[in-house]
Amino acid sequence: xxxxxxxxxxxxxxxxxxxxxxxxxxxxxxxxxxxxxxxxxxxxxxxxxxxxxxxxxxxxxxxxxxxxxxxxxxxxxxxxxxxxxxxxxxxxxxxxxxxxxxxxxxxxxxxxxxxxxxxxxxxxxxxxxxxxxxxxxxxxxxxxxxxxxxxxxxxxxxxxxxxxxxxxxxxxxxxxxxxxxxxxxxxxxxxxxxxxxxxxxxxxxxxxxxxxxxxxxxxxxxxxxxxxxxxxxxxxxxxxxxxxxxxxxxxxxxxxxxxxxxxxxxxxxxxxxxxxxxxxxxxxxxxxxxxxxxxxxxxxxxxxxxxxxxxxxxxxxxxxxxxxxxxxxx
Length: 330
Ligand code: TRP
Ligand code: SF4
Description:
Blueprint: E1 7-12, H1 23-32, E2 37-42, H2 44-51, H3 58-71, E3 79-83, H4 89-98, H5 103-108, H6 110-121, H7 129-132, H8 134-143, E4 149-151, H9 157-173, E5 183-185, H10 214-223, H11 243-251, H12 256-264, H13 270-296, H14 299-328
The structure holds tryptophan and iron/sulfur cluster.
């Protein structure tokens, strides 16, 4: 094996199918797997921190997320793909770290009070021990693989900062040096609005799923909001206020200036403009769909992939736990 540049770990919570906005995240992981020893997990325990009262769909969501990982280009020969709850040592490390983690550190994580309030506004109380411990479990997820790099969205930056502080405290307290301080790896992730212009989210039903069929793509693009000033094709348009144009800019970069000019000059109609976008999106998602289907129809392959993933993850995690138990003399 060629020399790798370091160890990467990242993951997502299984809360439903991913949308095309997530594609760039997965593509980034897929690129990194060439140069880094990569671990990518399905954070099912993290999903429980807010969805503890309804676990009926968690298994379905786990499967969807694995398929999305594979569809996005993660290669099980290059990346360890596994389910968090299949590696019990994450729980052990969380417990051990928790002995010395000051509660105010957890309460001070900026997302903590915000999220509690957001859930409160929706009539849900997540003022629980588990939710308070979210960043602690996440830190354990990372450092148990002695990962140095964590490709995540910028919203996760505060959790990474917490993990680094925890590592420093642990090293100081037990006079050891087991863990690298994990660094976030941010990539340029285009801000992709939903088809109605709001933030893309499954719960708004304004998303285009990563596994959308050609028909679904056509329907969603058809529903996209355009420049309201345009009624006839010859009306001069304002692409800068049009969602279709935002998408052309991201997925059809080369042709976008020409299309925008035609829109401004009243030389292209919205129907044609949308057709061109739908074709491009369909092209973008075709290989993703193909990879998804290859696994979706093969339960044994999926099971085997996850079994192997769990085996490799457990081996690495157990190695770390030996060091941790040694340092803590437990
Ligand atoms: N908190 C992350 C999110 O919501 C998911 C996650 C759990 C994670 N454990 C992790 C991400 C470890 C990176 C590393 O997206
Ligand atoms: Fe939007 Fe295209 Fe219609 Fe212009 S032509 S308003 S960019 S859909």
